[in-house]
Amino acid sequence: MEFIQEVTSLYAERGSWFLELIGAHIALSLTAIVCAGVIGLLLGIWISIHRKAAGSVLTAANILYTIPSISLLGMLIPFLGIGNPTAVVALTLYGIMPMVRNTYAGITGVSPEVISAAEGMGSTQAQIMLKIRLPLAMGVITAGIRNMVVMTISTAAIASFIGAGGLGVAIYRGITIYDTAMTFSGSLLIAVIAILSDFLLGIVERRIKKRLHLG
């Protein structure tokens, strides 16, 4: 109970500082999410068209995904230095994997009968991709986005160790000065943002799947 009071007091006394960290954390995460989303989507579309390259691309993305976050940040520092740019690159590389995988799975999972019917009606491959494959794959793609968003928000906490902003600053500072309340406060806010994002994206995902089912 005493610890909870300590955390509550910390939020009350340093509210503006925590709000600033929340803003920086969201900005950092959102930048990486947009970059990973666009790159992963385009790459997923590309390998769904060029199937022979799918294995190599997915393997490379999987290798990047399995590298520990702190190790990846350390490997990027000699090339990009410290700060937000390095963190954005690292988070983007992590986020590409779920986007590529789900985009590829969603597109290739579209029923061949549907594609054959569209081709029989004279649709071009571009029209089939934009009007049939992608819309029908959106449920799977949204699940990839959901996974990527939560992972990016959580992993962004590590970015403070290389001088980037965000709520990881509170965690890092709490560790260095042995302030468990500050460490907990930063961790709790990250968890809340991740859970809220997952909840909202879950609603979007369910609505998309319901619409596809009804369609």
From TrEMBL:
Keywords: Membrane, Transmembrane, Transmembrane helix, Transport. InterPro entries: ABC_transp_perm/SBD, MetI-like, MetI-like_sf. Residues 22-201 form the ABC transmembrane type-1 domain. It is found in: Cell membrane; Membrane. PROSITE patterns: ABC_TM1. The chain crosses the membrane at residues 21-49, 69-94, 148-172, 184-204. Gene3D superfamilies: MetI-like. It is a multi-pass membrane protein. It comes from the Bacteria. Belongs to the binding-protein-dependent transport system permease family. This is ABC transporter permease. It comes from Ruminococcus turbiniformis.
